[in-house]
Amino acid sequence: MLDGMSVDQLRTFIAAVDEGSFSAAGRKLRRAQSVVSATLANLEAQVGFPLFDRSGRYPKLTEAGVAMLEAARLAAAGMDAFRAKARTLAEGLEPELAVSVDVMFPVAQLTAAVQAFHQVFPDTPLRLYVEALGAVLQPLLDGHCRVAIIGSLPHIPAGCTSEFLLNVPAVAVVSPEHLLANLPGPILRSLLAEHVQLVLADRSSLTVGRSFGVMSSKTWHLADMGAKHAFLRAGLGWGYMPLPVVEEDLATGKLVTLNLQMQPDVGPGFAMQAVHLEEHPPGPAGRWFINKLKMQVSAAG
């Protein structure tokens, strides 16, 4: 009986659990409730025990159902990975590789990876989107790129797979002529709130109503990292910057670090990850590019 079990039955089982009812599962799967009920009844007949207690208004997992749920999720995920791998192999080498890259990613390591890519794949065009926050992820979700290198957005949405690349430290900096530069640390948040904080703007709608690392009620939103860097050196405000970008400024005294009493919730740094959609993994060129970035990170470390 178990040999006849299908992935479709497992997906129906998972949907019934996640949606809370057979009718809701039917809406998610675009099937009639009767079809969902019949599918689950057949699955229970095959495994030899009930997966749901149907005595109440809504079906509840039995103890056996709870025990089987994780196995069902793993089996369904494994089939998804199998299909995605088969699709990738069938497609062959990508005609073009589009990658969305977080502006916080170290430019030296990115440049080295791009140079190596052009040597290995001279006939494969490379298109890069350089953005921040949700705008890094938006081209991936919209299908405009296959890989996103992201760190300034701390949360990876469902349906995506991520691979850790490196941590990029961040520091709070300000011009030595700025009033904050002359305050003894640690600086209270109440004092920071009196001064303009320069922050990167999100060109997508993914972070509407949310803020990351904002500690002042006075903010200037800039869509360009270069503009933020220039404004900081001009003394127009204070802000967080990736350490590799401002190391030379700190060494020459064009910028100074601030000792803050309270760090933002996201922490003083960015965990860079290579992200792709579970159903659309990168092809040979995309996989090579991700692995090259990892090698660049290891070499730099």
Task: Give an overview in words.
The protein has 301 residues and is an alpha/beta fold. The protein is built from 10 helices and 11 strands. Helix 5 crosses helix 10. The chain has helices at residues 7-19, 22-29, 33-47, 63-91, 107-120, 134-141, 189-192, 225-233, 243-252, 284-300; strands at residues 52-53, 60-61, 97-102, 126-131, 147-150, 160-174, 197-200, 219-222, 239-242, 256-257, 269-277. It is globular and about 75 Å long.
Structural key phrases:
single chain, 301 residues, seven-stranded mixed β-sheet, 42% helix, 19% strand
Structural class: alpha/beta
List the total number of helices: 10
Return Rg in Å.
Answer: 25 Å
Cα(first) to Cα(last) distance is: 54 Å
In this structure, how is the largest beta sheet organized?
Answer: 7 strands, mixed
Q: Write down the secondary-structure element order.
A: HHHEEHEHEHEEHEEHEHEEH
Poorly predicted runs of 5 or more residues: none
Question: Helicity, in percent?
Answer: 40-55%
Q: What is the molecular shape? A: globular
Percent strand:
15-25%
Give the number of DSSP strands. 11
- Overall pLDDT confidence: 86
Keywords: DNA-binding, Transcription, Transcription regulation
Family: Belongs to the LysR transcriptional regulatory family.
InterPro entries: LysR_HTH_N, LysR_subst-bd, WH-like_DNA-bd_sf, WH_DNA-bd_sf
Protein name: LysR family transcriptional regulator
